[in-house]
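User: For documentation purposes, I need each entry recorded in a consistent format: the amino acid sequence on its own, followed directly by the corresponding structure tokens. There are two entries in this batch. Please keep commentary to a minimum and don't merge the entries.

Assistant: Recorded as requested. Entry 1:
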Amino acid sequence: MFLRIVVSCLIFLVAGSTLVISEGQGERTDRPFAIYAEPVVLDSGDPARRDIGGLRYLGGWVLTSDNLDFGGISAMVLDDDGFVAIGDAGGLFRFALNDEGVITRAAIAQLSAGPIPDDGGDVEKRDRDAEGLAHDPDTGRYWVAFERANGFWRFDSAFERSDADAAPEAMEDWPSNGGAEAMVRLDDGRFLIFSEAGDGPGDSREVLLFAGDPVEDGPPPLRLGYRPPGEHRITDAALLPDGRLLVLNRDFSIVEGVSVIVSIVSLDALTAGTILEGEIIARLDPPVTIDNMEALAIDEQDGRTIVWMASDDNFNPLQRTLLLQFELLALR
């Protein structure tokens, strides 16, 4: 993705950024699970702060592990009582967090299948740049979108094997480092695939709407567009209970650091050439606790819409893997 090198090399230069080495990064002997959670406040300058735009902060944690494969979270979903997350180096992370913010189970693995180099050589990090994740709760199956390969792999509920994959022709011209960035499975079985930098209609980024499972034969996808706010780019999207999309958008500059905009997008008109554009509900900038936010998941609790965000630390010790929890006040 376009920020990978910039963030990894320059982020420590950003004045006023909250991207600092967290406590507990070293080896620990008191961790009962593979992933450890350390609580953080929303705003260190105002620890009592809770509301930011249409979001209310419920809690946040820095996630760490002694396992060097942990990190790079780029997408996640909620499954049963916990999280399933993927990383841009092919990592697979499954963990649960209780109401007290304590990890109750965790496992770290590698995706069992995915793109391989064209020359047949050893699989490297860049080959398994997983950026999108979708889940069908009825069958338990998962779909993973790989950005550089601009293709999909379908996995069983345990991620033990992949039974199908495809690299659609409609995605061939997407930039290898700006391709499939977010994937959403709609309730009727259609799939929306958002490119990070592929050209769409007008000044938008291209979005493809598949009539069904993108790894199965079917009609060509409809070509739409998504216009992110300002200079921000989409990093993930998730379906809300009312049928709209919640979209995570991120930007980075050396002067201002990381900026995150959360917007809601209507899906009323999904026809060829439509440009989707969201209503901004919250903007998170330093000194608010943020990082390279890339993953988004939605939950419902007692009639409330709960928003989870996670960050990609780029495997950089100067960044953090954050897991943040908010209530979406806009849907009250």
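Entry 2:
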Amino acid sequence: MLVKGATGVTLASLTIDGGAADGGATHFANCATVGFTLGIYYRNSSGTVDSTNTTNIRSAACCSAAVFAESGSGGVANLDARGSALDNYGLDGIECNGLSTACTITGNTLRGRGRVDDEVQFGVVIRFGAAAAMSGNVIRDHFFTPRGGDDSIALGILLVYATPDSSPYLLRDNTFIGNELDVLRTLRTSSSVAL
């Protein structure tokens, strides 16, 4: 589902099922090179994802995310994701990306695939200057069991170059179950600090 260059677009009470796609997993793919398979994509757009079920968004050829909001080329993206269930996704449950992107993520259930060795998973990713407020979410079952000494870890929430004040109370305001690590904020690839 693509929402491109539009404002005030609400997706509600839908099921987005990617089960007809190739359904694999991209083990450490370069997403900038291989691209994405997405369930819902707000590109330079604003709106609400309410009471939806986004499931089976996976790909062996591309990176994948259940819900993706992104700003770029002078555009703005504002997403309110609430009361929805996201499960069986490949790389990310919800990703908010870009300097002019703001997301409110409230009351959702994001369920990873549990202990897997084919792909590192993240429940929520806020990156490259995006801002976010997150509360009341259940974020569970993101766990990577690497092969061959790989030291990557799966995360409930990953903040990469996120607006510094994004969600300072993540551990208090959300419920985490069975994640390898619940929250990580990183400012540089070589320097990470767990919240």
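Summary note for entry 2:
The chain has two helices and 19 strands.
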